[in-house]
Design a protein that fits this description.
Layout: H1 25-36, H2 38-44, E1 48-52, H3 58-67, E2 72-77, H4 80-92, E3 98-101, H5 108-111, E4 116-121, H6 130-133, H7 138-141, H8 151-156, H9 160-163, E5 164-175, H10 180-189, E6 192-202, E7 205-214
Parallel strand pairs: 1-2, 1-4, 2-3, 4-5
Antiparallel strand pairs: 5-7, 6-7
Helix pairs in contact: 1-3
């Protein structure tokens, strides 16, 4: 059975988590979801994997260890501290990740037109006031999602058809308040069919990992 081992994060200190999102139930649910999809992913024979908002680097590092070095792994994060921490995590666990400090996938839209095979996004999903989305607090930016928790992820949806390969798969983590049915509707309007991979209650949050493929 293919397993995604939880990466070693012993190199990270409390001071790192002052500015970078510390892995929590949502992070581990995404790892579990990807683990359940490993054979599906391997069968697709992907060449390029992209994670948007890599944070600590736990997800891409875990996936890279499971899939091997034959793939190219790219990670983006708008938080410069997160980009540095992701790099540290990859080195600690012996994998190679390319890091970009940027908003979403902005610099890659033209460079990677229809080339990304696996896209992973654990977005800022917590419903908040819109002002919190652009807060000067880097840690707040990692979870503040604005109206319905959708402000940031809604910016990404129109980009998906531009950067994803025609055989690509997009994994998205959401909570109930994000309105799953509406996300399915929006993605369908872009030509993508959605399904639920994993779901779990974590305290007051009901978390889900959604999977999208072209139809």
């Amino acid at each position: 059975m293919d397993v995604i081992e939880t990466p070693d994060l012993s190199h990270l200190k409390d001071s790192d988590y002052e500015n970078v999102y510390e892995p929590a139930e949502d992070s581990f649910l995404m790892l579990d979801a990807l683990e359940s999809e490993i054979q599906f992913i391997k069968d697709k024979k992907p060449a390029i994997c992209l994670e948007i908002g890599s944070g600590s680097g736990i997800i891409s590092t875990g996936l890279a260890r499971a899939l091997g070095s034959q793939l190219a792994y790219f990670c983006t994060d708008i938080n410069p501290f997160a980009a540095k921490v992701t790099k540290k995590t990859s080195l600690k666990n012996g994998v190679s990740l390319e890091l970009l400090n940027c908003n979403l996938a902005d610099p890659l839209v033209d460079q990677m037109k229809n080339q990304v095979d696996i896209l992973i996004f654990n977005p800022p999903y917590v419903p908040t006031e819109e002002a919190e989305v652009s807060s000067k607090s880097l840690i707040s930016q990692s979870w503040a999602g604005g109206h319905r928790g959708r402000t940031v992820m809604d910016q990404l949806f129109p980009i998906i058809p531009k950067i994803m390969s025609f055989n690509g798969t997009f994994y998205l983590l959401i909570v109930k308040e994000n309105d799953q049915d509406d996300i399915f509707r929006v993605m369908k309007s872009h030509g993508w069919a959605g399904s639920i991979v994993k779901e779990r209650r974590a305290g007051p949050e009901f978390l889900k990992v959604l999977k999208f493929v072209r139809f």
